[in-house]
Amino acid sequence: xxxxxxxxxxxxxxxxxxxxxxxxxxxxxxxxxxxxxxxxxxxxxxxxxxxxxxxxxxxxxxxxxxxxxxxxxxxxxxxxxxxxxxxxxxxxxxxxxxxxxxxxxxxxxxxxxxxxxxxxxxxxxxxxxxxxxxxxxxxxxxxxxxxxxxxxxxxxxxxxxxxxxxxxxxxxxxxxxxxxxxxxxxxxxxxxxxxxxxxxxxxxxxxxxxxxxxxxxxxxxxxxxxxxxxxxxxxxxxxxxxxxxxxxxxxxxxxxxxxxxxxxxxxxxxxxxxxxxxxxxxxxxxxxxxxxxxxxxxxxxxxxxxxxxxxxxxxxxxxxxxxxxxxxxxxxxxxxx
Amino acid sequence: xxxxxxxxxxxxxxxxxxxxxxxxxxxxxxxxxxxxxxxxxxxxxxxxxxxxxxxxxxxxxxxxxxxxxxxxxxxxxxxxxxxxxxxxxxxxxxxxxxxxxxxxxxxxxxxxxxxxxxxxxxxxxxxxxxxxxxxxxxxxxxxxxxxxxxxxxxxxxxxxxxxxxxxxxxxxxxxxxxxxxxxxxxxxxxxxxxxxxxxxxxxxxxxxxxxxxxxxxxxxxxxxxxxxxxxxxxxxxxxxxxxxxxxxxxxxxxxxxxxxxxxxxxxxxxxxxxxxxxxxxxxxxxxxxxxxxxxxxxxxxxxxxxxxxxxxxxxxxxxxxxxxxxxxxxxxxx
Lengths: 337, 334
What we know:
heterodimer; A: alpha/beta; eight-stranded mixed sheet; four-stranded antiparallel sheet; 13 helices; B: alpha/beta
């Protein structure tokens, strides 16, 4: 049984101007101790999906209108508020993009770090403090015993993200959701944080969901990748499959539009033309149809669902055409050389 | 194709000599006194060649944006000289500096912040023409329509406001505004950092097309080393207010000499799991030190994985040519 099993999740925002189709019939699972990467552009619904799973959608205007989120045998969408609060920060925890806005600037790190420990683990002040120091040492903060008395502004960006991670790990979660934790950081600091999360995942036997807009980053990190577009999962594949043989035109387009550090030619990049659809005016048929180079008539009328590629049971694509990505990438490489 | 550094056309367009930008740190409410200075740019020297794209990379706070602004005199340098063609910009002021500004323009990072929301596209793109007295009336309108066409926007958009456009389209408006005065030199400060991945390539391609058609010279400031490799002819790497390495694109990426460049390159992920599985990362420890008080000796020694005793005490390494125009500032490279 998977650790987290999401089925037909749908989230809507009811605003004055109209209904935003933020998450549209999203189904996926995460196995025990697995790292799943979710990749998508801004507005693709990747953060909204995970906020819906955690039931952190502001309500109103947001509403989870449909679906099921099974975690350790219970449906999170059916739990009472006190019950879900007992889970958050305990069995499942989440770290966010910008540690400066998710840490409280007027409280010391100790205060913020011990809060969830005391609530969830029922430890007294002294024991909670020791646990907090241990956590800070674990995430690589030097002189943790002194630094714990500091305020967030006294830490650098990378150190703040380490504090956030320590908070996320405080109660030994089974699942850590990392929402673009390195986007606000420099590339050398990003490398530090990626190594840290990889190490902690091994030590603590937890599953990780890593949300990002950077396909490159996931190549050294994830076991499996979900690609999101316009609130839908359009492709789901094991790591090697996704990069070597993407079957959705959007994934293929993303891979061809990013320059690679190991490719020298100054040839023209192949951008994905056009723009993502307006989620308030959701298109009929496939949401990618308007930008898709492989579009056929059917795409404009019928929205494809996520279905396994014939010979690969773990590789699913929501596309009527399913172009042969490996062949396309091969040809592009041959032309470039 | 744009001219590369190896082609004979290597005339210098902009020359930067020992450029310094120090910001004072003041203390006291009424009787303010200077208690220190933030050495954002701390003595850098390089040339930008006619028709090339010079990439300027580094982590946040290394002084790359300040360098860009100081070259255009948007931030007055506290030391050093900047020459544009034969003119010394650092000595120019008033009307003569204003005249020079026609030749050099800037593209900013955030197209949401750099366009006035109350102005129409027509008046945004047309403003430089008016300021420099280049065109008015119908002539101006025609030129604006032409500019919009050049950057791939529909000239019908002339009466619309910035909020009606997406990020990528707004960046095209910013580019059209920069091109309005027919500049020779453009400083692009992180022009694609605020855009979505699938849109970034559109803007990069546009910038390359414009360079080919109009013979522009770019100083392309970015933190994304993959994009810089793609667009640049030569690349300069900055660390804590200094340029530590400058070389031809191929030389810098295939054979980086400075330990910082090596670490920086090894930290950039590559979208290919088979390559990633084989790569060895150099993980730098700690953070960039404060530019108020950069470390003694080589300013990278506190994080350098190969530093020797001399790096701590010896004077700062000189920025010198290690052969074939590959400049590097490191004691360990001869």
